[in-house]
């Protein structure tokens, strides 16, 4: 692999409140994310998922409470974090290799490192292509390689696979899992897709109106597949919570 094994950052979110104007977007979030853990945050649109992630990235100032990383309050941009969004945000005027190596270019061997990362994400030899000729899934592969180029201790994923078709999305989930198993950075994923959360996370946090309403451990063996025993049960538990369905009336029975 192109980067050394990392020890993921430990994150503590402590009584985090955020108001935008009069709107209480985060209402006392408490959570601990262990170093090297993969945590997913799910919740309905507008419940505050991205706002939470942006606080961990150091892109928002809390109204009260704080986020700590390895015991230190995050104050300003979190330099140990790399972000990946739904939109790949590649530089269209730079080729793929330069996009991957954009953060490495002060290092003498950046081209070799960037080429190795491209190989890791399944784009061996595509370094001279322009972003415009890549498919959506390929662009996200490049974005993932770019995120890994910094050897992140923390990878923040804000719906990174949300715009991809179902099959590409599953391939990318497998790739993210594989790279996480190798690099062992801490990962925080925001997603609408409960199946994606179960595929990837050690723990799923469900947020409703800025509060954590459920935390669910996912102890399924890896690599995961949606057909694995227990997968559907966890998915259903989360969906029931999100949709406000009582446990005694399972979702699958209701929809039959
Ligand atoms: N900079 C901002 N200024 C004002 N309001 C904001 C700002 N950022 C977010 N909000 C509001 O905070 C609420 C939560 O937004 P956030 O993007 O965190 O939700 P989300 O759960 O990630 O939603 P989605 O899944 O639709 O992306 C929304 O009502 C949004 O309009």
Automatic annotation (TrEMBL):
Which keywords does UniProt give here?
Answer: ATP-binding, Cell membrane, Membrane, Nucleotide-binding, Translocase, Transport
Ranges for the ABC transporter domain?
A: 11-234
Top-rank lineage group of the source organism: Bacteria
Q: Which PROSITE patterns match?
A: ABC_TRANSPORTER_1, ABC_TRANSPORTER_2
Among SMART domains, the record links this protein to: AAA
* The keyword Membrane is annotated on this UniProt entry: yes
A GO molecular-function annotation: ATP binding
Descriptive protein name:
Aliphatic sulfonate ABC transporter ATP-binding protein
Provenance organism: Shouchella clausii
The record lists the lineage as:
Bacteria, Bacillati, Bacillota, Bacilli, Bacillales
Point out the gene that encodes the protein. ssuB
